[in-house]
From TrEMBL:
GO CC term (a single one): cytoplasm
Lineage: Bacteria, Pseudomonadati, Pseudomonadota, Gammaproteobacteria, Lysobacterales
GO molecular function annotation: aldehyde dehydrogenase (NAD+) activity
Protein name: Nucleoside-diphosphate-sugar epimerase
Sequence ranges assigned to domain NAD-dependent epimerase/dehydratase in this UniProt record: 8-216
Xref: InterPro entries: Epimerase_deHydtase, NAD(P)-bd_dom_sf, NAD(P)-dependent_oxidoreduct
Domain of life the protein comes from: Bacteria
Species of the source: Luteibacter rhizovicinus
One of the Pfam families matching this protein, by short name: Epimerase
């Protein structure tokens, strides 16, 4: 870590991953700075909010002055605008990190991988993305690897599909359970007998903070896979039923045929449609490297994690009878 001490800039702190990273780093004694397009007054969070836009290189550089780490957790909402926005935002982060001597932290995804890498993904698995969004993700990591070779340290923490409180832009809240609506059904996007990797966001944020506590032990370019919860669709649905106290909760298949029909007219659906391949096979992140590096990898039980997630979504959870 550089001489600037424990100050971190979080890009995307109003989102799920960035928000949990910011809260975890505060708990670990970091001074947390965050960039936001809408200026925020002191909100009691302990975060030093700075007004600016990740699409503006000067804004990012000013916000990064004096930091030791930049967490790059900013993404276009709803899969929209990836072609125009994602790589320029990362370039601004790389330029700022290079200028101030900071490490870049990227929350990684499984979109980088194609069928040749499944069902178990290690840090060395080939990244032959099948989708355009996945190819952008591969390009992001290639740029970060180039930056690391030039002396800018990088950490990637790759996770499965996110869920958790305060998170909106993910498969759980956009596909399985609808926020703000009575919980009557769960919509599952693939065969329910297949297992899939899920990442509980508070665990992800805490893991990121624990890795940065040992920043001096990290390689200049280092990547870890966060295993999270590797469970079948049936197991996940049963856990949702327990968490919601709704044993008769129905399950229906995700309406992929309707997505196909509507995708020419809706950008979000057009980007979502190619991701179907991720639900046609078991998908597991191998967490052995992370477990070997950290003495204790955070892991909240699935029932507790789902109770917190559903409670934050205002879905009308059935209360326990006395």
């Amino acid at each position: 870590m550089n001489a600037n001490g424990k100050t971190v800039l979080v890009l995307g702190a109003t989102g799920g991953v960035g928000g949990e990273a910011a809260r975890a780093l505060l708990r670990h004694g970091w001074t947390v700075r965050a960039l936001t397009r809408t200026l925020r007054e002191n909100d009691g969070s302990g975060i030093d909010w700075r007004q600016g836009d990740a699409m503006n290189a000067d804004d990012v550089l000013r916000a990064a002055e004096g930091v030791a780490v930049i967490v790059h957790a900013v993404n276009p909402p709803g899969y929209r605008g990836w072609n125009r926005l994602v790589l320029p935002m990362l370039d601004h982060t790389i330029a700022a990190a290079r200028a101030v001597g900071a490490r870049i932290v990227l929350p990684g995804t499984v979109y980088n991988y194609g069928d040749d890498a499944f069902p178990v993904l290690t840090e060395a698995s080939p990244q032959h993305a099948r989708t355009h969004k996945g190819q952008i993700r591969v390009a992001m990591e290639q740029r970060l690897a180039d930056a690391a070779r030039d002396g800018t340290p990088v950490l990637i923490l790759r996770c499965g599909d996110f869920f958790g409180p305060r998170a909106a832009n993910n498969w759980f809240t956009q596909g399985l359970v609808k926020p703000g609506q009575p919980l009557r059904t769960v919509t599952y996007p693939g065969p329910r007998q297949l297992a899939h990797s899920w990442a509980y966001l508070p665990d992800v944020g805490e893991t990121m903070a624990r890795l940065l506590d040992r920043e001096r032990d990290l390689a200049t370019f280092d990547a870890f896979h966060f295993e999270g919860h590797y469970i079948t669709g049936d197991e996940l649905v049963d856990a949702i039923r327990r968490a919601a106290n709704a044993p008769d909760l129905r399950v229906r298949a995700f309406p992929w045929p309707l997505i196909v029909l509507a995708s020419p007219f809706v950008e979000t659906l057009r980007e979502l449609r190619p991701m179907r391949y991720l639900w046609k096979t078991p998908l597991r992140l191998d967490g052995h490297k992370l477990h070997a590096f950290l003495d204790d990898v955070p892991h909240t039980g699935i029932d507790e994690a789902l109770r917190a997630t559903l409670a934050s979504m205002d879905v009308g959870i059935v209360q326990e009878r006395a």
